[in-house]
Specification:
4-stranded parallel beta sheet; about 140 residues; alpha/beta; disordered N terminus
């Protein structure tokens, strides 16, 4: 059986951040942004988020071909504990408050989505790895 992390070798249009950079130790956002750039350069695609990512800077999907974000795993609807499983995005410890986790389109048109980006089964947390909630 093919594992999700190796599926992009067989399925065109799927991009795994793990294949575009190191994950962990402050490199998650760089790898995700590299996967977004590769997908847009190829005319659009699906970014598969298959594990927890603690991002240290904003993930950007600029104007251009559509990029979809697909978070694998199940969400947790319980108030406590505030945890998610599988693929999700959360701020890294020290992430600046009032900073977006995702930036889609152009800063000059913040309410538009000109590239048609969507989130399939979105899993986004405001709790940093150190347990602190990030304001914003």
């Amino acid at each position: 059986m093919t594992s999700p992390a190796s599926a992009d070798a067989a399925v065109s249009g799927m991009y795994f951040p793990e294949h575009y950079g190191r994950i962990g130790s402050g490199a998650d956002a760089v790898a995700i942004n590299a996967a977004v750039a590769a997908a847009q350069a190829a005319g659009g695609g699906l970014i598969v988020l298959s594990q927890p990512y603690a991002i240290e800077s904003t993930i950007s999907a600029a104007t251009g071909p559509a990029v979809q974000f697909w978070c694998l795993g199940a969400g947790n609807r319980q108030v406590n504990p505030k945890t998610l499983t599988g693929g999700y995005v959360r701020p890294a410890s020290g992430f600046p408050p009032d900073t977006p986790l995702f930036s889609i389109g152009r800063p000059s048109a913040p309410r538009q989505n000109p590239c048609g980006t969507t989130f399939l089964t979105p899993r986004i947390s405001g709790i940093a790895p150190d347990g602190k909630a990030i304001r914003g």
